[in-house]
Structure to design on (786 residues):
């Protein structure tokens, strides 16, 4: 069993499969947050004695995230959540009326709504890239995604929006290959990647370094506190993008308002945020690192997700969405009655919740989603499969 | 002595005058945050069992802030900080090229830089409203501010940006009278009020209800945790303003991206934030309420700030910026040498900090700022005055 598991009080009283919604917070990470708050009160809260501690927290976490993402620390901006990381830089790009945004058809409604609003304002058009039902195994799916991209690109395409790991189906998309293709396009479209489900579950360095905007949160697969994420920005975005929300953290000289924005990722940071959370995420990332390399961790995640996926295939009343074993820890599936009739996913969530087994329903496609992480045990997978089998009787 | 003071570990080892930078966090508020995190792990973090608790925290704090601000709860949007509260709604307003933004000359560089960037994008012009050196007592200053406004308004004025309580001089501005004047202007300019220094120090209900955007933070005079603030939005802003940063919290139906934004303040909320902070701010506001009405609390704040202001006037080497007693707890002043030469404010901050007395320097005008709150004792004011007198020798 994972050493990490013993540090997670959330897992003590439930069978938990909602890592993709929110990861459990390890006790040492909560303690790190509280210790930081106490130290902040002891030294500060607003004194010259406290700045070195806060500066060290910030630069330490920025450097660690940069290592995870395979980029230099100046490309990282801290954000409150994934949506802010996706959208803040978007509003600052130099748009021209008539340009086109190409959005994957499995993106989160938040980023889709933001793109609709951006398109309305800047008189852009929107097109959809079908990636929700890619066929076959990973290499077949990658080829199909790239072929779909080829068909969808137009001379007006200026932005492509995709997730690294689709939140609904669990499919991994070939972000580096997409970035390469876009680099060869005459307009060199920007590549925005929603990495909500990838950091902490799959190795991200190649994709994060290839995208223009690679936005993630600490509170899902990284098991950090809610309210803290970051975004990796490409050098060309940092050069061409203007800050949007603007506050003292965006400014190189806090005392001079006239265009003295930071040239690095901080130009997209805004103002005061909850600094103790930095210590919590730092602690959680360190605990994950102690469990092994990102590849080793992924293999453990896959071991459980693949067992769950296989078990679902073997159930007479279930059908996984993915036609091949999941690339990471997201396993989505549909349930049906013995007579073939549909089962309401929300009702299943409530029924299993009453048994202390927590997964979630998704609206589009209507399905259930169970996530396995490092901390998921073989017994938990068996328990879920048994509970699902019972529903089919 | 204030009951609150005994609950503030930050005040145990220092003489603190930086409430306008960040307020100390009461121990019960930190405990409320930690208890919420523990309960969140016990029930969740992502389960149907945890939503009622989180929903209750959010609606409870929204209702409390609405009472403080004299508005209905649907006019409140939670934000991460004051800058986000100021700027998020601004980007969503329907601008027309050639319109003018009128900004007070004592605004924080963050909001000034945001207005510059907005003006660049939307081809607006910028003008300055001089309020930094208003003369006389409060009623003379109010009259002078309104006269300055009268001179500065043009037919193109579409937005006025002012603070309720100026962060540098401590002057209180007549926000309701400004709002009344703007309502009579043919273009009915929007009124954005930076309330960073007012909520928790002065009664805000009349001003908050009169402005279109009244943005504040919980971590200064309210003594809540850093990383949580809110903004009060006017009904017309909610009707005419479009959301900008957009995430699941902006959407009425989280599962449908196509223009289903909330009609209330939530249309300017974004996505996941640190929910336990809500419990911390709720606790701190309740502790302030227990100290007396907002008017009674202000009188206690003024008692100390006025004693400090008078003491500074009596020092041979100091000169307060305000020509009359401060309206709230901000007391800014200049120091000079016996020979009349200037003293570097940053050096004074370091020297006094080494004695455990913390105030801050400000760049424009170059001065020192000491804040008194409910928790400031008579002895602390005396200690500061003595230390400043020593510097003049």
């Amino acid at each position: 069993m994972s050493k990490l598991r013993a540090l997670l009080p959330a897992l003590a009283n439930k069978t938990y499969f909602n890592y993709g919604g929110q990861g459990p917070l390890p006790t040492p990470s909560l303690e790190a947050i509280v210790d930081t708050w106490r130290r902040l009160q002891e030294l500060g809260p607003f004194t010259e004695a406290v700045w070195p501690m806060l500066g060290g927290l910030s630069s330490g976490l920025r450097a660690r995230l940069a290592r995870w993402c395979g980029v230099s620390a100046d490309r990282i901006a801290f954000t409150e959540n994934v949506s802010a990381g996706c959208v803040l830089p978007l509003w600052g790009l130099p748009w021209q009326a008539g340009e086109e945004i190409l959005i994957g058809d499995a993106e989160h409604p938040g980023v889709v709504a933001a793109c609709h609003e951006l398109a309305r304002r800047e008189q852009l058009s929107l097109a959809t890239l079908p990636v929700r039902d890619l066929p076959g195994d990973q290499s077949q799916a990658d080829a199909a995604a790239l072929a779909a991209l080829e068909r969808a690109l137009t001379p007006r395409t200026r932005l492509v929006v995709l997730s690294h790991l689709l939140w609904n189906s669990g499919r991994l998309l070939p972000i580096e290959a997409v970035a390469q293709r876009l680099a060869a396009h005459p307009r060199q479209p920007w590549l925005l990647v929603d990495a909500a489900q990838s950091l902490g579950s799959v190795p991200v360095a190649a994709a994060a370094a290839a995208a223009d905007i690679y936005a993630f949160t600490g509170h899902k697969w990284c098991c950090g506190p809610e309210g803290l994420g970051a975004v990796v920005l490409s050098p060309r975005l940092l050069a061409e993008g203007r800050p949007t929300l603007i506050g003292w953290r965006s400014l190189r000289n806090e005392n001079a308002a006239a265009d003295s924005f930071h040239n690095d990722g901080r130009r997209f940071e805004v103002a005061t945020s909850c600094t103790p959370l930095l210590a919590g995420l730092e602690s959680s990332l360190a605990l994950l690192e102690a469990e092994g390399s990102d590849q080793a961790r992924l293999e453990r995640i896959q071991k459980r997700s693949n067992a769950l996926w296989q078990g679902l295939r073997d159930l007479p009343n279930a059908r996984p969405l993915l036609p091949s074993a999941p690339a990471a820890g997201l396993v989505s599936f549909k349930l049906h009655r013995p007579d073939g009739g549909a089962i309401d996913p929300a009702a299943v969530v409530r029924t299993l919740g009453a048994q202390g087994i927590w997964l979630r329903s998704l609206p589009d496609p209507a399905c259930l989603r169970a996530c396995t992480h490092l901390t998921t045990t073989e017994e938990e997978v068996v328990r879920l499969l048994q509970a699902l089998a019972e529903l089919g009787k």
